[in-house]
Structure to design on (93 residues):
């Protein structure tokens, strides 16, 4: 399992996932309608080029790019892994 840290505004959370795509999908589910405000913090070597932070809320194309074609397809195909990952969320700040 890999530990990821992320947040939005003044909050910060961690979660554990088998891979970055499951962690990202879980972050997006966690923040729901505010997912465009999610900032990635750790692990830097994995998240380096994956930001989808956009204060204007237009992230669909960026998510599809990160998820290799379709964010929605990834979520539908990995829902059980996302649920398990969601259960590991811990609030840090």
């Amino acid at each position: 399992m890999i530990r990821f840290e992320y947040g939005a505004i003044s909050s910060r959370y961690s979660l554990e996932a088998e891979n970055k795509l499951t962690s990202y999908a879980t972050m997006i589910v966690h923040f729901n309608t505010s997912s465009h405000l999610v900032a990635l913090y750790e692990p830097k070597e994995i998240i380096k080029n994956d930001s989808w932070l956009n204060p204007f809320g237009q992230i669909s194309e960026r998510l599809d790019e990160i998820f290799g074609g379709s964010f929605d397809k990834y979520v539908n195909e990995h829902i059980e892994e996302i649920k398990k990952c969601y259960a590991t969320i811990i609030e840090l700040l």
User: Anything to note?
Assistant: The radius of gyration is 12 Å. The longest strand covers residues 2-7. The chain has a mean pLDDT of 96.
